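Exercise 7. Predict the structure of RING-type E3 ubiquitin transferase from Polistes dominula.
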Amino acid sequence: MAVTFLPYQHILRLIKKMDTRKDQNMSKNSQKRKLKYANQAEILRSHQRDLDFVLQLQEKLSDILHDFKNYRTLSRHLISDTLAKLIYFIFTTGMGNQTLGEEYTGIVQADIKAYRIPSLSARIMAMMLEYFGERTLLRGLDLLQRYVNDSGNQLTEQSIKLLNLILSRLQSIIPLLILIHKSIFYISGRYYSLGKRLTKIDYAKVYGNPSVDKISWGLRLLGIITLMQSVLKIWQNESQRRNNEEHIKLTETDVHGKCQLCTEAISTTATPCGHIFCWPCISNWLRNKPQCPFCRENVPPQRIVYLMNL
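Solution. The predicted structure, encoded as tokens:
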């Protein structure tokens, strides 16, 4: 299958030439026409078509490598579509050409205000952030958290707790930021990915018929629903965090406080489910009813453990 890619520079040069032609009948105060922003539906269709081609390219690469002796070793690098995406990027956006999806929908990556294509460094940075940004950042936070919890470091206990709290929050916030940005794209139609927003790469509509506006309104509604979903996830994460903190406090109270049955003696005996009471109370309770007084889990009397270090 023969594939041709149209260069960005050629497309923008033709459009700029058309836009800079002066019409003798135009008034002096009129300004030249500006590039139009591509809408959400066109950008999504473009990326979907590119994804279809990337999957086909991945299958072709797998078929080619199947003939090599070390196929299984090489196939580990093709489990994901990262290699196919990189190859596709090099021959399209990396070389300043339209992708198949962009050519199909009549859009082009551009710095619309400056009326030029994005620089090569901006295109590479946007690609790196889009393909590897979230994954690399989460992996880095995970490695940092392992180092913090390593017994060989010289951090104080208070510092370890604080760093663990910060790192855990960041690990939960990053996917939410990606989801919130996606909802903003659905609503506004600007900057498909967070990487493109950071590098100021947008999409311009250069030829072809625009999409029906009803589609854009449907995507805006999807964006509002996605934004509501993000807020709900934030609320759920916060509620879960509070419940965990209350559970930790309750456990600490059970260990170091009074028996929850008689409220007088010190808790010295643990059940298999983790609740702690004084020995006389829990042993008498289990003789009458072999269940934990708190969670109602089945607890045979011979399974309770006396904690000698309390």
